[in-house]
Amino acid sequence: MEISQFQISDYLDSNEMIAAYLNTVLTEGDEQDLILAIGHIAKSIGMSKIAAQTGMSRPSLYKALSEGAKPQFGTIMKVLRAIGGDIQIAPQPAQPNRP
Prior knowledge:
Structural class: mainly alpha
């Protein structure tokens, strides 16, 4: 029996699933987890499509969203917009030592 490797991108098949996945990574992960998650989402949508929308080549896109990559913030923003994402800032409750 052959066992296939689990690919999260195979399950990111709706905007709701993509948003839930990305929000979970933002809440529980670190910056590398976020980069990889954006890569998984881009793969689920189609790297060729994302490359065309961002003006990046597919190899550059794969490299920017691979493990250990340190993409520029502008690259992350381009890809987020291409996958239909947005960044919003929500205020956190005041901490005792902060005004």
